[in-house]
Amino acid sequence: MTSNIYYRSIFPLVGILVILIAWQIYTDVFNVSRVVLPSPTDIFFATTENFSQLARHAWPTFLECVLGFALAVGIGIPIAVALSSSVILNLTLYPILIAMQSVPKVAVAPIILVWFGLGMESKLAIAFLVAFFPIVVDTATGLNATPTGLLELAKSLRATRWQIFSKVQLPAALPFVFAGAKVAVTLTVIGAVIGEFVGSNEGLGNLLLTANSQLNGPLAWAALVWLSVLGMVLFGAVALAERFFMPWAKTASH
Amino acid sequence: MTSNIYYRSIFPLVGILVILIAWQIYTDVFNVSRVVLPSPTDIFFATTENFSQLARHAWPTFLECVLGFALAVGIGIPIAVALSSSVILNLTLYPILIAMQSVPKVAVAPIILVWFGLGMESKLAIAFLVAFFPIVVDTATGLNATPTGLLELAKSLRATRWQIFSKVQLPAALPFVFAGAKVAVTLTVIGAVIGEFVGSNEGLGNLLLTANSQLNGPLAWAALVWLSVLGMVLFGAVALAERFFMPWAKTASH
Amino acid sequence: ADELKPVVFSLDFIPLGRHAPWYAAVEEGFFAEEGLDVTIIPSQGTAQVMQAIASGTAQFGFVDLPGVVLAQAGGTDIEMISVNYQKSPYAIFSLANGGDVQDIAQIEGLSLGSGAGSITPKVIGGFMSQNGLSASSLEIVNVAPPARASALLSGQVPAIEFFVMAKPGLEKAAKEAGTELRTFLLADNGLELYSNGIGALGSYLDENPDVAEGFVRAAMRGWKFTLDNPEKAADHIVKNVDGLDHDVVLAEIEVVRNLAVTDDVKEHGLGWFSPEKMKTGVEFVIDNVGVDGTAPEAGSIYRSEFLPEPAILP
Amino acid sequence: MAISKERARCGPVSNVEPFGDFKNIEKRFDLGGGEYLTAIEQLSLKLEKGQLISLLGPSGCGKTTFLRIVAGLERASAGEVRIEGRAISGPHPDFAFVFQQPNLMPWRTVLENILFPLEIRRQRTQAGIERAKELLDLVGLDGFESRYPSELSGGMQQRVALCRALVHDARLLLMDEPFGALDELKRMEMHDLLLSIRARTNVSVLFVTHSISEAVYLSDVVAVFSRRPATISKLIPIDLPYPRQHEMRYEAQFTEHEREASRLLGIVR
Amino acid sequence: MAISKERARCGPVSNVEPFGDFKNIEKRFDLGGGEYLTAIEQLSLKLEKGQLISLLGPSGCGKTTFLRIVAGLERASAGEVRIEGRAISGPHPDFAFVFQQPNLMPWRTVLENILFPLEIRRQRTQAGIERAKELLDLVGLDGFESRYPSELSGGMQQRVALCRALVHDARLLLMDEPFGALDELKRMEMHDLLLSIRARTNVSVLFVTHSISEAVYLSDVVAVFSRRPATISKLIPIDLPYPRQHEMRYEAQFTEHEREASRLLGIVR
Ligand SMILES: Nc1ncnc2c1ncn2[C@@H]1O[C@H](COP(=O)(O)OP(=O)(O)OP(=O)(O)O)[C@@H](O)[C@H]1O
Ligand SMILES: Nc1ncnc2c1ncn2[C@@H]1O[C@H](COP(=O)(O)OP(=O)(O)OP(=O)(O)O)[C@@H](O)[C@H]1O
Ligand SMILES: [Mg+2]
Ligand SMILES: [Mg+2]
C-alpha cells in the first residue's frame, strides 16, 4: 500500500522531470528566444512572480470546466441513450451531432455570444460543445456492446426500457462511459479557454491571451502549465470516480 | 435491403431539413444580420457562387485530416499499448499525455511552427495533437477490458506479448478503438482548421478566416458547412471501416 | 444621476495598453458623469466587434474604417462616430539581420508573415500601388497572430505585419536575440487611411442620440486624460486587466499617441475626422480590399454630429 | 405436498385448456448468403399447469432455441405458442429463465444478482432479501452474499443463477441445463429443492438436461428430441409417485424409463 | 494401442521421476478487508507420464483452482508444482487447457478458433488446417467451420473448445468439465475419442468432472477431492483394462468403483 503510493507519485514526477530537463537544455543550448519558447526556469519564475494572479484566474476556468463537464455528461448520456435505443433517432441525430462536433468552435463563438450572453453561460455552452461528443460516442458504443446474455435476462423479466438502461446497459457500458469522460474532461479545459478567448475578462485563457499579446512568453507558458495541471487534476478526478463507481473492476492500469 | 438504404438516407435528411427550416425562420423572423448568422439560403447561394473555390480549398483540408488521422492512429495505438502493458509506463506517460491534451493548441502553435515549419508538417502535427488523445484513452481502456478468459487462454498457450496484443487484446478492444477513432476523426477536422489558422495559404480553415475578416458571413458559413460535411464523410468512413473490421458484430446502431 | 444607463462597449481585441483611454474614462468617472455605466468587453478582431454590435451584444465598439465598409456591404448599418486612430497602425517589422525593411522600395518582393485573408496585406498592396510598386510581388505567408513574433524571431519569415503597438515587445525580444528591430509604419510613409474609432448601429444612434453624444464625450475625455497622465492611465488599466505589464502599457500609450494626435486633432479635437479623408479612405478600401455585396456610399459610413462640442483638444 | 402428489400423474388430466400449448413450431436461422439452418421443425407440445416436462436431446438439436421461443426471446418462424390460450408476443411477466450460461452481472454481488428480478418487478422488500438469503442457504452458498461473480467457481455461479430464478414466484420455470456444472450430491439436493418448490407453488417447468436419470427423476413427462432439425420423437410419461425418493433411482420402473430414453437417444446398452 | 494397453495399469510403474509432481499445494484467495478464503490445503498428487487422472469433488471445492495452478495461470500460496522434475513458473508450452467455459473468440469463426493455438506456435500449416477439420468432423461439427461462436449451441461451443485443445500435440491435457454440456451419446463418443488420442500420443491428462461414471470410465486413477478447503481424500486406482468398452459400464467391477467414489462424495445409495 505504501509502496503503491510511492509508485504512483514517483513515476509521474520522473517523467515530467525528464521532460523539463530536456526542455531546459534545449532552450539553453539553442538559445531559444523567450518569446518563442521560454525555458522551464523562466516559466517557474513567471509562476512565482504572478502566483496570486494565476490562482485568481484559475478559479473561473476551473468552474467553467467542471460545470461544462457536468453539462456534457448530463446532456451527452441521454443523447447516447436516445441514439442507441432507436435506429431512427440514431440516423436522424448523428449527422447533426457530427456537424456540431466538426465545426471549429471559435468560428461559431459569435453566435453563441449572441444567444448566451457574455456571462458564464456562453463559456459553459462552448465547453459543453467541445466536450460532449466523446461522451455521446463512447456511451452509445458501450450501450450497444452490452453482453446479449444480460440483455436477454432483463428482457425475459420484462424490464422496462429505463430499467434495462439503468440496471444493465449503463453499468455494462461504464468502461466506455469513463473512457469518454476522460477525453471529455480534458477537452472542457480547451473549451473553457476558447470561451474565454471569445469574450471574457477572467480565466487562464484570458490571461494567456493577454500575456501572449504582450509577447510575455514566460507568463503565457505559466498559464499553459496551469491549464495542463488543471487538465491533470480533472482527469485524475474522473479516474478516481471510475474506481469508485466500478469497484468490481480490477484496475490493471490507472 | 432497399428499404434499408431508403431508411439510412431519409432520416438524416429529415433531421437536417428540420434544422435548416428552423434556422431560416429564426433568421427571417428576428431579422438577424448576415454578418452575425446568415440564413441557410444565404449560405446556399454563397456555396453555389463560390463552389469551385470551396472545392479547391476542401482538398488540402481533406488531406490534412486523413493524414493527421492516420498519424493519430499510427502513434496513438502504440502509445495505448505501452500504457496498458506496463504500470510504470502508464504512470510516467499519462500525465504528459494529459498535459499535451489539455493545452490549447493555438497557444503552442508558435513552437510548432518553429519546429515543423510553415508547410504541411505543422498542420499534420496539430491535427495529430488534437486527435490522438481519444484514440489513446479508448484503446488503452479497451485493451484493459479484454475478457480474462481469452487472456488466460492466450497465456496458457505461452503467447508472446505481441501475439496477445494483436490476436486477443486488439480484436477484443476494437469497439473501443473505433469509438475513439470516431471521436478522433472529427477532431482532426478541427485540428486541420487550427493548423490552417496558424499558418497556411489554403484550405477551408483559411477560406473561413478570409471570409470572416472580410465580414462575408455567408461565405464563412459555407466554409463551416463544408467542414461539417467533411466531418460527416470522415466519420462515415470510420463507421464503414468498423463494419468491415468487425463483421461478427451485429450492428444494432449505425 | 444615480440611475446609470448600462452600456456595453466592445474593444477591437483583448484589452491591452492601447486601450488604456477607455479604462481611464471608466475609472475617472467620465462615463458616469454622462449617466452611463459602461462595461468593456474584449473581442478577437474586427469581425467579432462588428458581430457584437450588429447583434446588439454591444451598443458601441472600437471599429476600423475598412471593417465598417465591409460590414455595411454585408448588410449592417454600423457607422463611425469618431476616429481615434487618425493614422493606420499597420506596420511592417523586420530584424536588422533579417529583412531589414527601412524603405518603401524594400517591400517589393518581400515575403511577409501576415494573417490568412486579413485585410492588411490588401492595404499594403494598395499602398504599394499608390507608390508605383508591384503589389503582386508581395508574398504573403499566413502566420497566425500569436505565432507571428516567433516566426520573425526564429527566422521563418524575413518580415511580419502587425499593428505598430507590438513595437515595444518586439523591440525587447529583438534586443534579447542580439539584434535590432526595424519598424516600418505605413502611415508615416505616406498611407492616408483612417483607422479605428467608435462605431454603433445607425438605428441605435437614431434612437439614442444623447447616449451616443455622452459616450463619445466621456471617451474623448478618457483619451485626453490618458495622453496627459499616462502613468495614472496605465495604473487604471493594469488594475482592471490581469497580465498587463505597466511598462509595456506605457510604451503602448506612447505608440498610440503618435497615431491619435495629428495636426488635425490638435486643431479640431480628439476623435475628429474630415469628410474628404473619410471619402478617400472608403474609396481606398473599395478599390483595394474589395467588398462582397453593394459598396456603401462614403456618406453613409459616418456621422459627425456626436463629436463633443466644444472639442476636446489634446 | 398433497397437491403435488395429486398432480404427479402425467398426461392431460382434463380437457380444459393446457397451461402452455405449442403447435407446429418451426425455427429457421438466416445464416446470411442465402443459407438457412432449420433448428426446429414441426414441434408440438402441451404443458399442463403444474407439470414438469424435461427435454432430452442431442447437443445442438434445438432445445435452447425452443426454450427461448417459449420465453418470448426469439420468434418462431412458424407455428403457434400459446400460454393459457393466448398467443404470446414477447416475454411473459411471470416466467423465470435459468439460462445455459449463468449470465451474472459482474458489477453486482451475489445477493444483488439474486435480487435483480425483484428490483425489476419493484418488489425488492425485506422479505425478498430474506428469501434470497434463504435460497443461498439452500443451495449451499451461505457466506457468499457479498462476493462478486468473478470470485465464484463455475458451479457456484450456476447456483446463483438458480436462486435468481427462484426468488420470485414464477408460474413457469424455463431451465436450461441448470445443474450441468454441479457435482452429483449437490445435484440431487437441487432436484429435491426444485420438486419441493414445485409442490409448494404448483409452478410449471420446462427443464432441459442431458442427464437421463435427472430427467426421469424430476419429470411428469420426458420429451425426447430428435437430432436437428428438432422435433419430439417421443413423450415418455414417468409413472412414479411424488414425492420422489432417491431410492427410486434403483427401482426397476425407474431404470426401465432410463433405458427407454437411452434407446431413443441412440444409446445402446 | 498396444502402448496404451500397456500403460493402462495404474499406480507408479517405475521409481523414476513422475511427469507431474504436486506437493502440499495450498491456495488462499485474498478477499480484501483482511478476509481470506482457503481453496486448497495440503494437496499432493503425482501424475505419471501418459496417465489419465480424473478429479472428482464437490462444486466449489477447488478443482478449477488446482488445474489453473498446474497450468501456471495461478500461483500456489504454498507448495511445489514440478513438471518433469522442474518447478514451473508460468504456463508450459506443451500444455493444453480446456476451460470450464468455452472461451471462444467471438470475432473468429469456428475453424479460426481451433487454429488459434497453431497460430500462437507459428505452426499454422495446411496439415494443421486439415487436422482441425478432421477434429471438427470427429466431434460432429462438420459444416460449421465458418460459423461464428454466437451461432452455436452451448454444447457445440464446448466441442469447439475441445478441438482447440487437441489441435496441437500437447503433452499434458488439462480438462475442466469438458463434456459437461454434452448429451450422453455425444459424451460417450468423446470418451472414446479422448482415450484413443491418449493411446496414440501418450498424453498425460488431468480431467475434472462431476460425472462419476465418466471418471471411472476414463481414468487410470480417480482422485476424489474433499469439500473446501480441498485436499485429496482418496485415490481410487481403476483396474479395468484398456481399451475400455462401453459394456464395461455395467460390469460389477465398474459399478463397484462408481459406488466407492459415490460413497466418498457423500452419496449414500
Ligand atoms: N443465433 C443463431 N444463429 C444461427 N444458428 C443458431 C443460432 N442459435 C442457434 N443456432 C443453431 O441452432 C441449433 C440449435 O441450437 P440450440 O442452442 O437450440 O441447441 P441445444 O439443443 O440447446 O444444444 P446444446 O445442448 O448443445 O445446448 C444449432 O445447430 C445452432 O447452431
Ligand atoms: N479469484 C477468486 N477470488 C476469490 N475466491 C475465488 C477466486 N477463484 C475461486 N475462488 C474460490 O475458490 C473456491 C474454489 O473455486 P474453484 O473454481 O476452484 O472450484 P471448483 O472446484 O472448480 O468448483 P466447480 O465444480 O463449481 O467449478 C471457491 O469457493 C471460489 O469461491
Ligand atoms: Mg442449449
Ligand atoms: Mg470449476
Automatic annotation (TrEMBL), chains A, B:
CDD domains: TM_PBP2. Pfam families: BPD_transp_1. The keyword S-adenosyl-L-methionine does not apply. The chain crosses the membrane at residues 5-26, 66-89, 96-118, 124-151, 172-199, 219-241. It is found in: Cell membrane. Residues 58-242 form the ABC transmembrane type-1 domain. Keywords: Cell membrane, Membrane, Transmembrane, Transmembrane helix, Transport. It is a multi-pass membrane protein. It comes from the Bacteria. InterPro entries: MetI-like (IPR000515), MetI-like_sf (IPR035906). Gene3D superfamilies: MetI-like (1.10.3720.10). Belongs to the binding-protein-dependent transport system permease family. This is Aliphatic sulfonates transport permease protein SsuC.
UniProtKB/TrEMBL annotation, chains D, E:
Its EC number is 3.6.3.-. Residues 20-252 form the ABC transporter domain. SMART domains: AAA (SM00382). Keywords: ATP-binding, Hydrolase, Nucleotide-binding, Transport. Gene3D superfamilies: P-loop containing nucleotide triphosphate hydrolases (3.40.50.300). Signal peptide: none annotated. SUPFAM superfamilies: P-loop containing nucleoside triphosphate hydrolases. GO terms for molecular function: ATP binding; hydrolase activity. Pfam families: ABC_tran (PF00005). It comes from the Bacteria. InterPro entries: AAA+_ATPase, ABC_transporter-like_ATP-bd, ABC_transporter-like_CS, ABC_transporter_ATP-bind, P-loop_NTPase. Belongs to the ABC transporter superfamily. PANTHER family: ALIPHATIC SULFONATES IMPORT ATP-BINDING PROTEIN SSUB, TAURINE IMPORT ATP-BINDING PROTEIN-RELATED. This is Aliphatic sulfonates import ATP-binding protein SsuB. It comes from Nitratireductor thuwali.
